Amino acid sequence: MRVLIVDDNASMRDLLSALLTSQGYAVVGALEDGNGVMEAVRALSPQIICLDYQLPGRDGLDILREINSDHPEIDVLFITATEGQGIETQAADAGAAGFLRKPFGQKQVIDELQQVRETRRRASPESQPEAAVNSPAPLPVAEKAGKAAGHQRTAVIADDNSSIRLLLKGLLTELGLQVVGQAANGEEAIRAATNYQPTVLFLDVNMPILGGLEALPKIVAASPKTSVVMVTGDTSRSIVQQAAGLGARGYVVKPVRPAYVEKFLKQLFNA
């Protein structure tokens, strides 16, 4: 895996470079400034970027949003020393594939990168080794839950972040659902629910034009048989309670993890 490291601290760049190289990653670059990141992305074609939040020239959140907009296939491991959950929530909503808070240990880095790689592998079955592709596949969640209705379960994904849409589409397809529509804002989500009447609709909380909580009651009214699942980096009690009161059947936490999505769908379909 090709990795680009972006951190203004030379010791941190050296530590990460040595650690990742020892784990078999190919460190293709190490930058100390935020201004040249996008040029380096185009020149070096990394698959993973270890990105610090507080950088000279340009902050990490701004860079993260551009990477996820222009290169949704790249996974970003977001790193910060900032206290509080606010920045973590913003990074998750912006599409961070993983999160590390300084100071952290070597095992934390290795484990988080493994989670990121596993999520991408599960979401991109075409990128798996031939042996894995040809091995007997587990029965999809949709089939495990039963096909009493006599048709494949369908899904719509509504999220303004293209990277998260890409990951969710891959995961849901692998789990046996047919993704029939995608949306980038609440108004598009309402139209997709009306047109497709999906089995399940994954709805981002924070979206432009119309947010997920504002769109939720309209989606429930337009497609009452659809199970709406909120997707959010903010799991505060008020958000969860408000979503449940408006008709949501549950929520998926960002960064998206395959095991959580699979477990949630099993519970949802067996309810």
What are the defining features of this structure?
single chain; 271 residues; alpha/beta; Rossmann fold; 12 helices; 10 strands; 19% strand
Structure description:
The relative contact order is 0.10. Helices cover 46% and strands 19% of the residues. It has a 5-stranded parallel sheet, with helices on both faces. The protein has a 5-stranded parallel sheet with strand order 7-6-8-9-10, with helices on both faces. It is built from 12 helices and 10 strands. With 271 residues, it is an alpha/beta fold. It has helices spanning 10-22, 37-44, 60-70, 86-93, 106-123, 130-134, 141-144, 162-174, 186-196, 212-222, 237-245, 258-270, and strands at residues 2-6, 26-31, 48-52, 75-80, 98-101, 154-158, 178-183, 200-204, 227-232, 250-253. The longest helix has 18 residues, at 106-123. It folds into 2 domains: 2-127, Response regulator (Rossmann fold); 138-270, 3-Layer(aba) Sandwich (Rossmann fold), CATH 3.40.50.
